[in-house]
TrEMBL record:
It comes from Allofournierella massiliensis. GO terms for biological process: methylation. It comes from the Bacteria. Keywords: Methyltransferase, Transferase. Pfam families: Methyltransf_25 (PF13649). This is Methyltransferase domain-containing protein. GO terms for molecular function: methyltransferase activity.
Length: 253
């Protein structure tokens, strides 16, 4: 899922996201586990608000996304902040992640891993992150919960408005397949151009996620509500997971 035309509309529609709270939580989790500098990769970085914040905090950031348009927006922002030389951007599918060396941490936010499926692909993406992770490294990522897929996205339609465009977000939840089929229709008001994006989100129960992490050398350390950063409730719409790399793949052999 590349979010091609959606890239230039993404920040307008995601304006309600509390990036400051997310940044403070991510940074606190990194520091809690002894990571105050070094190489951190943002998997599915999108237009890069969090990537830029962590770059400004002194981390050597790598932003990875398969959308050229998303990366172009991020590059423009980095240029405006005059931090482009401290930020490496890679256009890659995280299923085929290929970094230049090891990393101290990986982060992935706003449901990137829900877009990876079916399960064999989700597991491959975890394996790729594990391959480049140093021992005691931190893997911090979020997922939309089964509750959100079943009760919030469900078969609902959301109409969103920005200053330059409107967006219709249509969902179809498939209980049997444990997926949400999503269509995003974008209408640019000044040109009357219309575009459509179509993708799926996959539902992954927390017990399954923990099992996959363990298989690739991670210990699930902390799970909390990914919107409030408080303890989970039955109606939490997003998990945010902190996992620690207990051993490298070489040590496993």
């Amino acid at each position: 899922m590349a979010y091609n035309e959606f890239a230039y509309f993404y920040d307008e529609l995601n304006g309600a996201a509390d990036y400051d709270a997310l940044y403070l939580y991510v940074k606190s989790q990194l520091e809690k586990n002894g990571i105050q500098d070094g190489i951190v990769v943002d998997l599915g970085c999108g237009t890069g608000e969090l990537t830029l914040m962590l770059t400004q905090a002194g981390y050597d950031m790598i932003g990875v996304d398969q959308s050229e348009e998303m990366l172009a927006v991020l590059r423009e922002k980095a240029d405006e902040l005059e931090i482009s030389e401290r930020l490496l951007l890679l256009r890659q599918d995280i299923l085929n992640l290929d970094l230049y060396g090891t990393i101290r941490a990986a982060i992935s936010t706003f449901d990137t891993y829900n877009h990876i499926g079916p399960r064999e692909n989700f597991e491959k993406a975890i394996e790729k992150a594990a391959f480049f992770m140093e021992k005691d490294g931190v893997f911090l990522f979020d997922l939309n919960t089964p509750y959100k897929h079943r009760e919030v996205l469900a078969d609902n339609v959301f109409d969103l408005e920005g200053p330059d465009a409107t967006c219709r977000w249509e969902n179809h939840y498939d209980e049997a397949e444990q997926t949400v089929d999503i269509r995003i229709g974008i209408h640019y008001l000044d040109t009357d151009e219309r575009f459509e994006e179509h993708f799926k989100e996959y539902t992954y129960p927390l017990e399954y996620v923990e099992e996959v992490l363990k298989r690739y050398g991670f210990r699930m350390e902390t799970v909390c509500d990914g919107e409030t950063f408080a303890p989970l409730t039955e109606e939490s719409q997003r998990y945010i997971i902190t996992a620690i790399k207990e051993y490298t793949q070489m040590e496993k052999r």
